[in-house]
Amino acid sequence: MADKHDTHVAVALRTVAAIRALPADERPRKLYGCEVWRDLDWMVDSDKVVFRLVNGKHRGVTGRRVRFADCRWQAYDLATLGRRRAHATYYQSHAVDLAQSVNFGVDLTPLIENEKLDPADFIGGFIRRFADDVNDRVRKFV
User: Which of 2, 51, 120, 136 has the greatest number of C-beta atoms within 10 Å?
Assistant: First the structure.
């Protein structure tokens, strides 16, 4: 049985397939996948695309969009905004926050530029780099 994570993967892959079906000169220049249900904590920071979100007078727009996305969960909007705020603080923990709200994404552009690039291999590269990073950090103390 598919869960919500499978659904997001299916939508992303269908989007990539639809873009690949376009003539090269009609494809978007960039394609980003952004975290929705899960964080992108399985990626090393250098692989993430950082979106510094607008705050201040536009903060309410972000909140309305989040609430509109799925109103079945009353706390979803607050949790999403809280996660974005936490990302802004924890992303560069030894520096002053560069934004009040941050969302992470992954640059999926290689998947629409190279039709032969297997999506599983592409994502697997991120996972391998993360595993190598964690293992290198652990080995420092062994």
Answer: 51
User: Structure tokens of 86?
Assistant: 């936490």
First to last CA, the chain: 41
CB of 44 closer than 8 Å to CB of 50: no
Check if the beta carbon of residue 86 is closer than 8 Å to that of residue 102: no
Burial class of 139 by CB neighbour count within 10 A (0 to 12, 13 to 18, 19+): exposed
Instruction: Identify whether the C-beta of residue 84 lies closer than 8 Å to the C-beta of residue 103.
Output: yes
Amino acid at position 40, single letter: L
Tokens in use for 72?
């079945």
| Whole-number Å distance between alpha carbons of 21 and 32 | 18
| This prediction's pTM | 0.80
Give burial (CB, 10 Å; 0-12/13-18/19+) of 88.
buried
Identity of residue 38: R
